[in-house]
User: Fold Homoserine dehydrogenase from Amycolatopsis australiensis.
Amino acid sequence: MSAAEGRPIRVALLGCGTVGGEVARLLTEQAGELAARAGAPVELAGIAVRRPDKHPELPPELLTADAEKLVTSDDVDVVVELVGGIEPVRGWLLAALEAGKSVVTANKALLAEHSADLFEAADAAGADLYFEAAVAGAIPLLRPLRESLAGDRITRVMGIVNGTTNYILSAMDSTGAGYAETLDEASRLGYAEADPTADVDGYDAASKAAILASLAFHTRVTASDVHREGIADVTAADLAAARMLGRTVKLLAICERVTDDDGVESVSARVHPVMIPRSHQLAGVGGAFNAVYVEADAAGELMFYGQGAGGAPTASAVLGDLVAVARNRVVGGRGPRESAHAALPVRPMGQTPTRYHVSLSVADRAGVLAQVAQAFAAHGVSIAAVRQSDVGDRASLVVVTHQAPDAALQSTVDEIGRLDVVHEVVSVMRVEGEDQ
Amino acid sequence: MSAAEGRPIRVALLGCGTVGGEVARLLTEQAGELAARAGAPVELAGIAVRRPDKHPELPPELLTADAEKLVTSDDVDVVVELVGGIEPVRGWLLAALEAGKSVVTANKALLAEHSADLFEAADAAGADLYFEAAVAGAIPLLRPLRESLAGDRITRVMGIVNGTTNYILSAMDSTGAGYAETLDEASRLGYAEADPTADVDGYDAASKAAILASLAFHTRVTASDVHREGIADVTAADLAAARMLGRTVKLLAICERVTDDDGVESVSARVHPVMIPRSHQLAGVGGAFNAVYVEADAAGELMFYGQGAGGAPTASAVLGDLVAVARNRVVGGRGPRESAHAALPVRPMGQTPTRYHVSLSVADRAGVLAQVAQAFAAHGVSIAAVRQSDVGDRASLVVVTHQAPDAALQSTVDEIGRLDVVHEVVSVMRVEGEDQ
Assistant:
C-alpha cells in the first residue's frame, strides 16, 4: 500500500452539462461510498465551464472559465472531460497528461481521431487515460474488451451503438412511416438533436466503431478508416421488404478480423443499415438502448446490453473510470495501457465480404429470373435464396446472396438496375445473421 | 514504469483438466500476444496434477504432484487454480498469497465460503486475487461489477448462472416432458454430470449468487446465506401452467438490495425456479448459455450474455485475469481490492418480497373464488390477476399475486391447499417480470 493512501484525489471537471451535472451530483452524494471504493476521498478541485455566471447551482468557488489553467493545476490529480469536440479539448487533455494528470473522458470524436497522441502522452507520463463512457454509455464494454478478453483473440464486434438511429428505425418498423416523417417525430419528442447529422449520417457510430476496432484488435483504426452509411436512405419499402422476410433493419457498427486467401490478416470497420432476422437478439433492442455482440476464439459469443446515452447512465461509466483511476493513484500503479502492437491494415469496404438482399420489381414474363441470375453469376456472386411473387402484370423478385466482396455486390446491383426486364430496384440492403 | 518490465511472469498451474488444458495450450500458442498485452512474457513455471504419469501430453519437466511446494516456489509469481473444491485448495491458495503470489481461480465453491480469509491474505501481502471464471464462465461480469460500476449503486443482479439446469428447463419447455426423463436425456447427451446434485439442487448457482451479491453490494454473503431451491420439483404441469400465461420457467439467481419500511437496508440472495414472461430477454436464453441482468441507480438496466461453462470459454476468463495480474506485476501496482465495507445484513427468505403464481384445481361451484380470495386477504397478500376456466365438473383457477413477504405467500398456499373446495394445488411458483 502506498503512502498516498488517504490523501484525497482531486478532480478537475471540464464541462457541466447533462452528464457533467450528474457527475458533480454523484461525487457529492456518494462521497462516502466512492472514498471506500477508491481508498481515498475523491473531491472536486474545480469545474471549468464556458460561462460560470450561468451555473448558480454549482459552488462558485469551484467554477472557472479557464480550463487550460485548471487542467495543469498542482491541486489536480485527475481531469474528467465532458466538453466534447476536438479543439480546444485536445490541447487541454495533452497538457493535462503531460503534467502527469490522469484523464477520464467520454469524447468519442476526439478518441476516434487522436488516440495515438493522447496514449503517447499518457504513456510518457505514466498517467491513465480511461474512456468507457465514449462508447455505449453505461454499458461496461471497453473494460471487458481491454481487460477481460486480454487473453483471448477477438474476431468480431457488432452492435447497435447509436440510440437516435435505433429509435428512428424501430419507429419506422412499427409504424410503416417513412424516414423524413419519423425523424421529425423523433426531433419533436427529443430523441433526435436539432441538427441530427452526427447521428443519422452515422458519424457518431463510426467514431465508436473506430474505438471498438482499435481496442478489440490491438491496432489503430481512426474514424476516417470506417466505411460509413447513415439511415437517411432507408425507406419504408426497405422495412416492408425486411418484414416480408421475417427481418428488420438496424444501423450496425461491424468490426471484423478478415483473413484473405493468402493468410494475410486485416481489419474491417463499417457502419451501415443491415437487415437482421427478427429472431436475432439485436432485433429486439428497441428505442434508445444499445447492444453489442463480441465474438472471440475461446470465449465464443458474448453480448452486452444497456442504455447507450443519457446523463445518469453516462455518468455511471465516467464514475467507474474515475474510481479506477483514483484507486490506481492510491495504490501507486496504473491501469492497462493501450496496445496497438498488432498494427493490422484496414481493409477497404469494396474488399470486405458482405451479403446482400436485393428486392426488385420485374416484368412478369419467362426468362427474367435467368437474366437476373446471370448478372449475379457474372460478378461471381452466389445466390442463397430467391423468392418470386406476382403483383398484377409485374412480379416481385427478392434475392439474398451468399458472401462476396462488397464491390462485386455493388457492381451486380448496378448492372441489374440497367436490365430492361427490371422495372425498379425496390430495396438493396446488406444482411447479417442466419434465417431460421 | 517498473524496473520489472520485461522480466517474465512465472505461472504455477494447479489442475490440468478441461479448463487447465486449454489454459496451458493458450499460454503456449498465444505467447507473443499475451506478452504484448501483459508487458512481459507470461510463462508456465510448473503444473501440479494428482498423477503426473497420466499427462503424457504435457512437458514432463513442468509436471509435479506437489502442489503445496509449487505454490510457494521462488520461481512462481502467479498461481492459477483450476482444481476446485475446498480442501486442500484453500490451504494452497492461502500459502501462495502469504508468500506474495497473486492468485487467479475459477473456484466458486471456495470463494462462496472462504473469500474473507483469502482476501485478507491477499491484502496483507499486497497480492491480487482474481476470479472472473468463477461465475458465468466467459462472460465478463465480475470485472464490470467490481470496476465499471464502482461509481454507481447496484440495486439488483438477476440471471441464469447454471447451464445444466437451463438446458433441462429449456428441454422440458419445448418437449413437455417431465423432470426425471429430461434429466436422464441431459445426462446421456453430456449436459448433466453423472452426479448432477450440485447443479440441479442449486448449489452451484447459490455459490455464484453469494459471489455476485458480495461484489455487487460490497458486503459479505456466503453460500449458506443464499436461499436455495433446485429444479427437481419443477413439473411438466408447472411448465404447462407457465405456457398458459405466456411465460416460461428458469432457475434464477436473484440478489437484491432491500430497504424496509424503517429505511433499514439489507441484501437478499436466493436461487429458485421462476416464471418469467416469454418476452423477457432471459426467457430466450437457451441451452448452456448464461445471462445476467444488473440494475444500478445511474446506469439503469444492463445485461451480459455468453457461454457459462466449457473449457475454452472458462479458459478465456482465466487468461483475462492472468494478463491483468501479470500487468499489475509488471507496472508494480495491484488491482482493486475486495470491499466489504457496506456490511449489510442478509434478509431471511421469509421476509424477502416476492410474487407468486398459484394454479389450482377447484370445485366448479359458486363461492369458491371468494374462499380462495379470502385466504390471500387473510395473509395480507394482494391479488394481481385471476383466471378461471372450466374443465368438466372441475374448474381451473390461476392466481398471480402482487409482492408480499415470501413467508406470507407460503402460508397462504398452505392454507389454500387445506380448503375443501380445492382439489389440488397444481403449480406454485414465484414470478418475475411484468406481463405485456
User: Anything to note?
Assistant: Chain A is about 35% helix and 25% strand. Residues 9-137+311-331 of chain A form a domain with the Rossmann fold fold (CATH 3.40.50.720).
